[in-house]
Design goal:
By secondary structure, this protein is mostly helical. It has 20 helices and seven strands.
Length: 506
């Protein structure tokens, strides 16, 4: 093979084996890393004293100086340090001496070629892929934040919707929960009165139930034990507990007003100041003499006086007579029966009992209509109210019981009754609703944090793109420089770096 033919054959080198290739062919010393550390330390010292020209500042920007950048620095120093050049062509400037020494160290045993090849390998294998990975991660972060922000919006809407539903069940707007509940609890008496009026339609149902039990048992001795509360309410409406216990209407009802937390402050603010001082000087003297035998003496200033005396025995007899004839309902006995927790619970149980009975009767009546001869024979001796009541009428009774039951066990009334039973429940319920509504603030804060993270990710991505472009550009430049330098070592033969370096892109 002639020399010309040999020159035409290109030299193909795998980029990831480039440093090993240079060392194996004795172009570079195997201990080039030690020499490179020495050069690096000298570059650090030399950079501390540099001219402040615009061209020099632009040149020093970007990646850490390598051999070819050091060469450009020396070219610029030839202009800035030309005044220090002597007649022999040497420079007396320490700056120039330092950089010239660095250039000599780089050129010794082709150190610059081994170092630049190593940096090229690091860019292709690590820097560029890692930068691309960070950009991809930023994009994923933005998508994830956007998805989570939509979830926060959905959860916020869901919390607000559930809050509105809960407030709607209790019949309040939800702006001032505590005050609205207190005002609502104050009107519970009228609502319980409406339910009591609705209970009047239970009387025929109770009588039907009693007739069935009496016919089944063959005796009326259980009539007083059958749904007594339902019977009482359907006859007398929502009476006091006193009337329910003793069967008498009280002459006077003394109710203990329940104070809710938060009401006292409003009461104090609305208190009227009449301008009187509670002092002993304001006592009015009515000129009445009290004697030891409990007599009352009234004297006239004109002299025509008269005297009335009442004995202790007369007063005690009158008080005893008043106590015997005057019925007073107070404390728990002054409450209505639907306000009393235990009686209200028993009444709900009676409604469940009535409903279960009617459903059973409805099923039995439907079966008897279908032709169950045994049941037909059993009810031949039954009272007319049992025989003449149709299936449709029983269904109507069931719906009437359900109507009362649903009104009494509605969410709104259950909460109001619990407020009535325990005034502190207002505070707990208001606190629960506030905590539920506070979730919206939590989701709003989370959404704001996600927006901040997404914005930071966008800024980071925008900063990474120029970095990637710079890495790709300098890697391509280094590739050309290395191929040219290796080609110089082989008398101008064409050199190709093979592998992934040919596919790098932004």
């Amino acid at each position: 093979m002639s020399w010309q033919q040999e020159q035409d054959i290109p030299i193909d080198i795998q980029y990831n084996k480039l440093v090993e290739w240079l060392v194996s062919r004795r172009h570079c010393n195997i201990k080039w890393k030690t020499s490179a550390e020495v050069v690096k330390s000298k570059i650090v010292d030399a950079l501390k004293d540099m001219p402040g020209t615009k061209e020099m500042k632009e040149l020093l920007q970007g990646s850490y100086p390598h051999y070819y950048k050091c060469k450009q620095i020396v070219d610029l120093l030839k202009d800035t340090e030309k005044d220090t050049k002597n007649i022999f062509g040497r420079y007396s400037s320490q700056r120039m001496k330092d950089w010239q020494e660095i250039m000599k160290l780089y050129e010794k045993e082709n150190l610059h070629l081994a170092e630049l090849s190593s940096r090229l390998l690091r860019n292709v294998n690590y820097e560029i892929p890692e930068t691309k990975k960070q950009i991809t991660k930023c994009g994923q972060m933005q998508q994830e934040c956007e998805k989570k922000m939509k979830d926060c919006e959905r959860k916020t809407d869901e919390v607000e919707r559930n809050y509105s539903i809960e407030c709607g069940k209790m019949g309040i707007e939800g702006k001032e929960v505590k005050l609205e509940l207190i005002k609502l609890a104050a009107d519970i008496g009228s609502e319980l009165g409406e339910i009591a009026i609705l209970c009047k339609q239970l009387l025929p149902i109770v009588e039907y139930y009693m007739a069935f039990v009496e016919f089944t048992v063959g005796s009326d001795r259980f009539n007083d034990e059958i749904t007594p509360i339902s019977k009482h309410i359907s006859k007398y409406a929502n009476t006091t507990v006193y009337q329910w216990k003793y069967g008498k209407v009280p002459d006077k009802i003394v109710r203990n007003d329940k104070k809710f937390e938060g009401e006292e402050e409003n009461a104090i603010e609305g208190e009227i100041d009449w301008g009187f001082d509670d002092t002993a000087d304001d006592v009015i003297d009515f000129d009445i003499d009290v004697v030891d035998d409990c007599g009352i003496v009234v004297e006239d200033e004109s002299g025509n006086g008269f005297e009335i005396q009442v004995s202790v025995s007369d007063v005690s007899q009158a008080a005893q007579h008043a106590a015997e004839s005057y019925e007073v309902a107070q404390d728990d006995e002054a409450d209505t029966i639907l306000e009393n927790l235990q009686i209200r619970t028993d009444f709900i149980n009676e409604l469940i009992e009535l409903r279960a009975f009617l459903l059973q009767r409805q099923h039995e009546s439907s079966t008897s209509v279908s032709g169950d001869l045994l049941q037909i024979n059993q009810f031949q001796q039954a009272p007319s109210v049992l025989q003449l009541t149709s299936v449709d009428e029983i269904e109507l009774m069931t719906s009437q019981v359900d109507e009362v039951y649903n009104r009494l066990t509605s969410t709104r009334l259950v909460y109001l009754c619990r407020i009535l039973d325990s005034p502190k429940f207002v505070e707990r319920l208001a606190s629960t609703l506030k905590r539920q509504l506070a979730l919206t603030s939590k989701y709003e804060n989370e959404k704001m944090n996600l927006q901040l993270r997404a914005s930071e990710s966008i800024v980071e991505e925008q900063n990474l793109y120029p970095k990637l472009q710079s890495l790709v550009a300098e890697t391509k430049e280094w590739r050309k420089l290395i191929e040219k330098e290796v080609s110089r070592l082989y008398n101008g033969r064409r050199v190709n770096l093979m592998g992934a370096i040919n596919f790098i892109s932004e």
